[in-house]
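Many introductory courses stop at the sequence. We go one step further.
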Amino acid sequence: MDTPTAATADLETLERVVSRVRDNIEKVIEGKRDVVSATLTVLLAEGHLLIEDVPGVGKTMLSKALARSIDCSVRRIQFTPDLLPSDVTGVSVFDQNSREFEFRPGGVFANIVVGDEINRASPKTQSALLECMEERQVTVDNTTYQLDSPFMVIATQNPIEMEGTYALPEAQRDRFMARVSVGYPVQSAEIAMLDSHTRTSPLDDLEPVTDAAEIAKLIGIVGQVYVSPAVQRYAVALTSVTRGSDELTLGASPRATLHLVRAAKARAAIAGRDYVLPDDVHDLTRPVLAHRLLPSVEASMSGRSTAAILDALVATVPVPSGTEG
C-alpha cells in the first residue's frame, strides 16, 4: 500500500487527546459515551452536528461541555422567532466619524458555534447558516469574510411536532454531517445528576483540555487515513440505494456520501487505525444519512420510520470483505 497514511505516533496522539476531551465532557454528561464519541467524530471530520431530542435531556449541556473542553473561541446563538439573518452573519454599519461602512461580525464568527433550538427561528434565518457551514465563509454586502479554522456548528433542536418550531430546510439538514439523540439517562446516572447538578453547575468547573491548534492538527491526521477503493464503492452503494427506493421521496445526496466517508475516517483514527473498515461506514449510516431522507406519503401513512427504511435498505447492500480492492 503506497498511499500516505497516518503515522502510528500521530494516531497515539489523537487517541490521547480524544480520551482527554471525552473524559472531560463525561464529567457533565454521564452515561452517554456513544453520543459523546459521535460528537468527537464529527469534530475531527470537520463536520457539523445536529442534536435532536425532547427538552431537558442535556442537548445544550453537551454542546457547551464540548465547547468548554477546547480552549478556542465559542459563540452561542439563541434561535428565536424574531432572530434576524444579520444577527447570525453580521451587518455593515455606517460609521459617522470615518464616513465608511464598518462590518460588525455576527454569532458565527467563532471556532465553535452553539446554535440553541435552531428550529425555533424562521427558515429565512436558519438559511443564514448555509454559506458558512458549507464554505466556511460569510458574504455580507458583496464582501466575503473567512471564518476561523477549525469551525463547527453544534445545533440543538426539539422534535418538529413540538409547539413553536419550524422544520429545517432540506439544504440545511444536508449540511449537518450527523444527527444524534441524547436520550433519557439511565436511573443511576440520573440519581448521580441530582447530587452533582443541584449544588452548582458542573460546567462552571470544566477546564479546557486542548486548544484549537491541536484540534486542527488532529483533523490533519484524520485526513491521512486510508480509504480503499472497495470501501469507497461501498459508501457510494449505500447512498445510491436510498435514491431508488419507492419508500423515500428524497434520497441521500453526494454530499452525504462525502460526509459518510469523512466521518468513517475520523472513527477509524479514534479507534487507532490508519485505514477505514467497511464496519466504520456501516455503523455510521444512521447518524449520517437518516436525517437527510424524506419518507414517501405511503411509508409515512404505514407508520414506517425513516430509520427503519434506511436499515432495511442498508441490509440489501453487500459488505466488502476487506479494505483492499
